[in-house]
Amino acid sequence: MHIKKEAYTVVTSIIYTIQVYAVMQSGLCVSVDLMFAVFFLYSSARLEMLCLEIQTAKNKRQINSCIKKHQKIIRFVDKTKDVVQFSLFKTNILMAVMSICGTFPIIHKQSLEVSSQFLCLVLAGYQRLYITAWPANDLMENSERVAIEIYNMSWLGKSQYIIKDMCFIMQRSQKPLLISMGMFLPTLTLKYYAKYFMTTLSYFATMRAIIGD
Questions:
Q1: % of the chain residues with pLDDT over 90
Q2: pLDDT tens column, 75-124
Q3: What is the reported pTM?
Q4: Which CATH number does 30-212 carry?
Q5: Which residues 6+ apart lie within 8 Å of 91 measured at CB?
Q6: Which of 32, 41, 88, 186 is the S-S candidate for 181 at Cβ 3.0 to 4.6 Å?
Q7: Which region, left, alpha or beta, applies to residue 198 given φ > 0 means left and ψ of -120 to 50 means alpha?
């Protein structure tokens, strides 16, 4: 009897340790998403500051300074994309599976207490993807805004060299800075997030119709 009690205590301790580890890992995953969001927001803020500098640029030295800053931002974003795209791909797949599977208790009409727990799980999955989708979309919009600011500058009276530099940065800005999630998924934007949200909802509606029948 004493041996069984010790074995039960050991098993309980192991299960408790695994649960604590799972909770800590989940929390760290959210912190990683927040770190990615900070990277995107940092780049977006630098682009927004660059747009303000472009509005006040009047000579060749200031235009060249804007070009150099723009190139630095592009290089930083390219390096960031290489680091985060695999993690974003994995997060996207896991959140989709979690959002779909988390709706099973709701479909089976469980108690309100059980259904509310899984509903929070599903909403957390949507929110976790939104944390990175919104800054990535903001980065894309601000990268396109650079070309608009160059276009809105006064071109009259500018020398040929300044116009050439302005055309260079405007041409480069026509290619927006997009965050890739690998070859199998489209770029991370709010438009993709909306499509992702509607797709998971359609799966939920389909499963509910099948199980209901």
A1: 14
A2: 999 998 888 888 888 888 877 777 777 676 666 666 666 667 677 777 77
A3: 0.78
A4: 1.20.58
A5: 29, 33, 128, 129, 132
A6: 88
A7: alpha
- Encoded tokens for 176: 């927006």
End-to-end CA separation in angstroms for the chain? 50
**Counting Cβ atoms within 10 Å, is residue 77 exposed (0-12), middle (13-18) or buried (19+)?**
buried
- Residue reference for tokens 């300074």: 65
Using DSSP's 3-state secondary structure scheme, residue 90 falls into helix
- Write 41-44 long-range contacts (CB < 8 A, 24+): 41/135, 41/138, 41/139, 43/73, 43/76, 43/77, 43/80, 43/139, 43/177, 44/135, 44/138, 44/139, 44/142
Q: Which residue has the tokens 């489209």?
A: 186
Please state, in angstroms and rounded to a whole number, the distance separating the CA atoms of residues 81 and 182: 10
184/80: higher pLDDT: 80
Buried-exposed string 20-38: b where 16+ CB fall within 10 A, e elsewhere: eeeeeeeeeeeeebeebbe
Q: Cα–Cα distances in Å, from 132 out to 31, 83, 146, 160? A: 11, 14, 22, 42
Higher pLDDT, 105 or 151: 151
Residue 178 has which token pair?
A: 């997009």
Q: Give which of 76, 92, 88, 68 is closest to 41, Cα–Cα.
A: 76
